């Protein structure tokens, strides 16, 4: 007996999420099983949306995922939630971040520490959770059309990506279940707390399941173990293109060596363009003077950087966009 047809809405706020739910075949599998799917994508750099159309099943529509602006109230609530969550989980990751804050921004650290201590004395994490769940989010009304006749919302982080919070809240208000397809490559709880917790969180392994149960408060039945399907393709080398075929598909010379330069988030590394230029020049002169091919891979969160003109002026360089293919 076949399962009932479901209408699914996928939120895809950044490039790694696109690969985890689209490039791995998750969306296509849902469609082939008779379900319908719609993707919400952020506004992308010129040409990216056209590139990714070929990776999306023809009957899957695309809507717009809006960028949520910061508000003072939500920023403060998230700050307090983060601190109380850090104290409860006692993760070493947060201790390291706090120590770094103390060294790099001592004045801000002092003010933040006073605010954190006041929060500990006056508030409970449960109170802050209630305020976060009830605080109106930008664009909630705008998403009403996307959520009409939807059976489930699929998000790509467990309740902390700012652009997904309006969708989560709007879905919960409408009684629509929220499923997080967690794409993180390390432990779940070292990132951020779930500001608005989804109903279901998929994880890779039993350790991650126990973390979600302990720290997010979900029942084990709501934390299914799925493995890491975004890496399954590497377990089947026959499914991967041969090196020479791949390089030829980029319009490059397979007789030259290939260098892949994976960029950091441009917010943290604003000097990325100068690094790319330096590596491109080194690639041009390396390999005993014959030069090497260079693929510049943008950070999964980077949807705005534009290296197209640079690539046109350097025929040995190709740029791989976070959502698209090398160009």
Percentage beta strand: 5-15%
The largest sheet is: 6 strands, parallel
Classify the secondary structure makeup into a structural class. alpha/beta
Ranges where pLDDT stays below 50 over 5 or more residues in a row are: none
Gap between N and C termini: 45 Å
Order of helices and strands: EHHEHEHHHHHEHEEHHEHEHE
Principal-axis shape: globular
| Spatial strand arrangement across the major sheet | 3-2-1-4-5-6
Helix tally equals: 13
Radius of gyration: 22 Å
Helix fraction bin: 25-40%
Integer average pLDDT: 87
Number of strands: 9
Question: What do you see in this structure?
Answer:
The chain is of the alpha/beta class and about 325 residues long. The protein has a 6-stranded parallel sheet. The chain has a 3-stranded parallel sheet with strand order 7-8-9. The mean pLDDT is about 85. It starts with 6 loop residues before the first strand and ends in a 7-residue tail after the last strand. It is built from 13 helices and 9 strands.
């Amino acid at each position: 007996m076949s399962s009932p047809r479901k209408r699914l809405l996928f939120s895809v706020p950044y490039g790694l999420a696109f690969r985890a739910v689209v490039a791995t075949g998750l969306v296509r599998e849902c469609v082939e099983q008779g379900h319908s799917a719609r993707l919400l994508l952020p506004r992308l750099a010129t040409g990216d949306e056209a590139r990714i159309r070929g990776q999306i099943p023809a009957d899957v529509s695309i809507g717009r995922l809006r960028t949520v602006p910061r508000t003072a109230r939500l920023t403060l609530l998230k700050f307090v939630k983060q601190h109380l969550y850090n104290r409860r989980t006692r993760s070493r990751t947060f201790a390291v971040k706090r120590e770094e804050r103390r060294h790099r921004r001592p004045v801000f650290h002092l003010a933040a520490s006073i605010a954190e201590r006041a929060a500990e004395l006056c508030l409970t994490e449960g109170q802050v959770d209630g305020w976060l769940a009830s605080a109106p989010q930008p664009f909630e009304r705008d998403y009403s059309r996307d959520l009409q006749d939807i059976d489930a919302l699929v998000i790509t982080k467990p309740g902390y990506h700012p652009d997904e919070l309006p969708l989560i809240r709007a879905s919960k208000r409408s009684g629509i279940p929220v499923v997080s397809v967690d794409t993180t490559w390390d432990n779940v709880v070292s990132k951020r707390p779930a500001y608005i917790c989804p109903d279901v969180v998929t994880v890779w392994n039993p350790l991650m399941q126990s973390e979600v149960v302990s720290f997010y408060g979900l029942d084990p039945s709501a934390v299914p173990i799925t493995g890491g399907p975004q890496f399954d393709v590497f377990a089947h080398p026959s499914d991967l293109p041969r090196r020479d075929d791949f390089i030829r598909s980029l319009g490059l010379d397979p007789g030259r060596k290939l260098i892949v330069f994976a960029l950091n988030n441009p917010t943290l590394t604003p000097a990325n363009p100068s690094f790319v230029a330096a590596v491109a020049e080194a690639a041009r002169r390396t390999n005993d003077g014959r030069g090497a091919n260079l693929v510049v891979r943008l950070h999964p969160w980077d949807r705005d950087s534009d290296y197209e003109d640079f690539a046109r002026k350097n025929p040995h360089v190709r740029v791989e966009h976070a959502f698209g293919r090398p160009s």
